[in-house]
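Re-run with default settings, no changes from the original entry. Doing this only to confirm the output is reproducible before filing.
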Amino acid sequence: MEKPKLLLATHNPAKVRELSSLLSAEEWELVTLEQQDLRLEVPEVGQTLEENAAAKARAYAQASGLVALADDSGLEVEALGGRPGPLSARYAGEGARDQEKINLLLSQLSGVPWERRRARFRCVIAVASPSGRLELCHGECQGVISFEPRGEGGFGYDPVFFLPELGRTMDELSLEEKNQVSHRGKAVRRALEVLRHFP
């Protein structure tokens, strides 16, 4: 029997890789925007992660005629009053590389002691159907912003997001380890429950 298609609504190859590994055992055929030849760009202009994730999932579900899964994630740093939050991807300006975002973050935390560098990653996953049904799933991961980047192979702020209970940054974990503890892993596991009864 043919599996229903689930559209991974992101242009980020690293995110596609993570989502694919988290969703691989499910009863859906995963397809990407590139495979569907969808060139639609959905601006992230919402004030919250929820607004951005919902806007992307709805737009791509409408454009493709498929159930779409989109996420918006953000890093919230206690000493910065919760910034960068929903602006995490554009914190150092539109099109800035991960290293530029990390450099800006570390410069803003210059002189801030270890015990005040607490942070959390938050992820909101939106699942939308072409008919307009929408479900939101949340996940978060607590950590500390390290004084310098460690690891390679991750993306975003992973190299400076230190997990005290593991003694490593998010970037130093294997994909399997990361999926167990990450904000996205937790949100996807909740999304899997939603997808079992969707649309």
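The longest strand covers residues 134-145. The two ends are 18 Å apart (CA to CA).
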